[in-house]
Amino acid sequence: MEAIGILYLAILFAACFVVVHVVKLAWIGLKSVRERNDKKPEPEEKKPEKKSDEKESKPVYYIVEKKRSRSKASYSAPREIKFKDDK
After folding, report:
1. DSSP string over 36-77
2. Do residues 50 and 56 make contact, with C-beta atoms less than 8 angstroms apart?
3. What is the CA radius of gyration of the chain?
4. CA distances from 33 to 30, 41, 82 (A)
């Protein structure tokens, strides 16, 4: 009788899992459809022509230094340790 209870528990868990994910995916799909409908193509405006006496903006370049890795720890030569004999 316990085995049938465990089987019902597994079936209930699987059903809840499927229902929750179907609802979540449906909500995501609904949001994406709404966003697609909200985005209407706007008419392109003509850009005013630049005058020849205006300076054109030049691109800005940033110099980024690569992070340097820490140098490996250097250890001294191993020393021999002598213990006192308690005789």
Report:
1. HHH-PPPPPPPPPPPPTTSPPPPPP----PPPPPPPPP--PP
2. yes
3. 36
4. 5, 16, 78
DSSP secondary structure code for residue 78 in this structure: P
Residue 50 makes CB contacts below 8 A (sequence gap 6+) with 56
Q: Which amino acid is at 4?
A: I
pLDDT in tens, 18-58: 999 999 999 999 999 888 877 766 667 766 665 555 567 88
Q: Could you give the CA distance from residue 56 to residue 64 in angstroms, rounded to a whole number?
A: 25
Instruction: Identify residue 65 by its one-letter amino acid code.
Output: E
Whose tokens are 């985005």? That residue is 39
pTM: 0.41
